[in-house]
Amino acid sequence: MVKDASAMKRHAEGLLWLAWLGCAFAAALSSQNYYLPVLAVAWAATTLIVIPLHFLKAWRRLQEAPNKGAFTAWVAFEALCTLGLIGAMVWLYVSGPHSPAKFRERVLRSNLQTVRSTLEQYSIDLHRRPQSLDEVVATGYLRAIPTDPMTKRNDSWTLEWSSDAKNPGIVNVHSSSQSVSTQGTKYCDW
Length: 190
Hints:
Elements: H1 2-29, H2 36-61, H3 68-95, H4 100-126, H5 133-138, E1 158-161, E2 170-174
Antiparallel strand pairs: 1-2
């Protein structure tokens, strides 16, 4: 019965660590990244507690193992897998396509493309340029003005106006953010 309780403890530790791993992956894949640092810290703290305890217990069990070579090989395999998973999580978060900065940049590109194509379609259909983004929404070309993910506002777009006196109006939009992108260019230059 003692061995069953010990095995249950090991499985509970593993499940706890795996649950945090799942939470961190879910957070990394979600679009709401404000709670990602909290989950990452909680997962890291759990990992820093559970993993050393697991390997400490395995080291203590080495003396009781009937086949010390096989047991040592298994623990080494577990250690390599654990380090690989931790490394993969860190690498995915820092450089992966789901990093918060890259995600916001993809959203910005999408929003800019949507607004720009809508402005072009508006001008083609109505033979005039819009005087505001609200006008584009009012005529039904857009459901709502998209939010600039860099400023987190939908009223901060920088509007580029036509220099044509016969057909004045908006010809382009840019983010008003002066921050520098992961590619080294300012968002307002996109």
